Amino acid sequence: MKTKTLYLAVALGMMLGFSSCNLDTFPSDELNSDLLLQDPQGAEYIMDGVYAILKDEVDFLGYASGNCYVRHYFQLSEFPADNICLSAHTTDPLYEATAYSMNDGLKNVGTLWMVAYKGIYMTNTVIETLDETKEDSKQLLGEAYFMRGLLHLHLVTLYALPYSYGRDNLGVPLRTSTSSEVTVRNPVGEVYDQIVLDLRKAADLMGKSRGNAGYPSKEAALGVLSRVYLYMEKYDDCIATVEEALNGAAPDSKLEQGVNYAAYFANAKTSKETLFCIAHETSDDRGQSSTGSMYLKDGIGWGEVYPSDPIMYLYERHPEDLRYNSFIIPQFSGNPGKKVYVTIPAAEGDPETPHIKYRTNLIDDGAGNYSFKGADNATYAIEKRMVNGEGEKDASGPYFEYHANYMGEDCLVRINDDVTLRTGYTIPMIFINKFSYQDGNPMLSSPVMCRWAEVILNRAEAYARSGQDAKALDDVNVIRTRAGIPTYTTGDLQGYSSVTNIVMDERRMELAWEGHRLFDMCRNKLPMDRRYAGAQPYKIVDPVNEPHIIYPIPNNEWTVSGIPQNPGY
User: Fold this and answer.
1) Alpha helix (H) ranges present in 160-213?
2) CA-CA to 36 of 20 to 30 Å: which in 67, 298, 306, 510?
3) In Å, what is the CA distance from 215 to each residue of 48, 125, 206, 542?
4) CA-to-CA dists, residue 281 to 214, 267, 274, 500, angstroms
5) Alpha carbon of residue 90 to chain centroid
6) Where are the alpha helices (DSSP H) in 374-451?
7) What residues are paired with 358 via a beta bridge?
8) Burial per residue of 87-101, b for 16 or more beta-carbon CB atoms within 10 angstroms, e otherwise
9) Distance separating alpha carbons of residues 467 and 109, to the nearest angstrom
10) Which residues neighbour 381 within 8 Å (Cβ) at sequence distance 6 or greater?
């Protein structure tokens, strides 16, 4: 029996009913396949519409405010991982993603699915219309294949188990035609195979971008393809793809350096490092509904999501790290001297406990011994404890945490300059500006979907996992040299147990909050330690056994099309 899904069988006119599509010849709600065939610029209108719907606010079940694909994508792909601290419970559905309490009726879960398939339908219209033998059709046709592949990748990584868990697991519906009426969940392997075909085709058809980094290019297609091969554990293909993308250029020549890197995310749309971004103009400013609003306050944002303790420890190994100094903004109180922040461990089922419960002055005896006076006026010694020292499963090299046996509890202790605590929630305010300050606007950015630093690190991981340690470190060292911190040699891993662990940490620091950490940990079946202050669950998350590590199929999809829901929902 044939069934039509609510989202996937939608007329093209509905696809283009968005205000930012900039259609010059026909109104957006009148453009159809016949007009597309008549108008030589029709394919360009359609593709511009695809890029527009990823940044436009769209209506979902009567709600539009803040309902934007790009905002939801970066929250859904980042907030369940261990690089963020949510300072307080919020009514925004981002909380459910952070707390692993998702359900199939949430607007972020439904909107991303809906918009992705609308975009895929639009790309299929272009693919079915243009003749690839005509030279003037190739670039736009390549863009259509690129976006069809990228959107399918977003869907299969968010709504299905990683490829490394098995090719035969339920994936997402593949849409390679506008005429599809039967909706099934294709196996994960089939979806990935089609993504590879689409990105390879895109690379073969495209040349340079037809504008800024908001338009894809051959290099962008190869960059995303290298990620796909890495996720598929096809390491030789990943390495070969990166080499094809570099085309003989030195990796560091593709990166912004120094002050240009410090200002990179504000200028991502025009940067040589950006392979593809969701380009925003001043008119696209969403204010408190922007992608960056949860990471930064600065007058208008919410500023409720901060760096986690573990990633701060990694950066603090080298305080001179350009990434630490450029993209992380502690809000200092202005009071002199180091302070001790004591986090009381959470009791089972108690979401309110893991906050900073006590702050006081640090006592330093000058010989490297730290202590503090507690609320009971007793003196407590601070222990410097090495964690993540051994083992592939740690996915990290050794770093030090401070602990204290405070009033009978083994408590995590942070030592910092006096950072302002968020009023009422006792969390140090440390902002992140990777989605801010385009054109000087604190809430405006062009969020990056793929950049050269990721591609170089894709190859580094592929080298490491295929036993080519020296080459892996060469790539890692390109990133570290740009950051201004010490490099590695095969004879000195600086305490790491493997080069693979070095690569994973470098990915964590370089690509933090850009939507990679969750997928990196899940595909490698590595635990995420979230035992630090914040409103997120205080626990170690094992992705293999966490039922909500992937998102539910939206209610308005599975109840109409009849496709199976993900387990646990």
Assistant:
1) 188-205
2) 67
3) 9, 18, 11, 37
4) 11, 12, 16, 39
5) 20
6) none
7) 342
8) bbebebbbbbbbbbe
9) 39
10) 369, 370, 371, 404
Other CB atoms within 10 A of residue 195 CB: 24
Structure-token match 């906050």, residue found: 355
Distance (Å, whole) CA 95 – CA 534: 12
d(CA 488, CA 397): 12
Question: At 194, which amino acid appears?
Answer: Q
pLDDT, the chain, mean: 89
Q: What is the largest CA-CA distance in the chain?
A: 82
Which residue type does 181 have?
Answer: E
pLDDT classification of 554: cutoffs 50, 70, 90: very high
**Segment 492-511, tens digit of pLDDT:** 998 898 999 999 999 999 99
Say how far apart CA 64 and CA 316 lie, in whole Å: 40
Spatial distance between the Cα atoms of 245 and 454, rounded to a whole number of angstroms:
13
Amino acid at 109: V
Identify which of 284, 304, 329 has the alpha carbon closest to the alpha carbon of residue 94. 304
- CA torsion angle 464 468 471 476 (round to 10): 10
Say which residue the tokens 């519409």 belong to.
Answer: 49
Residues 438 and 447: beta-carbon distance below 8 Å: no
| Lookup: tokens for 415 | 């030592």
User: Counting beta carbons within 10 angstroms of the beta carbon of residue 35, is it exposed (0 to 12), middle (13 to 18) or buried (19 or more)?
Assistant: middle
Element (H, E) at 306: strand 305-307
Q: Report pLDDT digits (tens) over 384-405.
A: 887 764 443 444 566 678 999 9
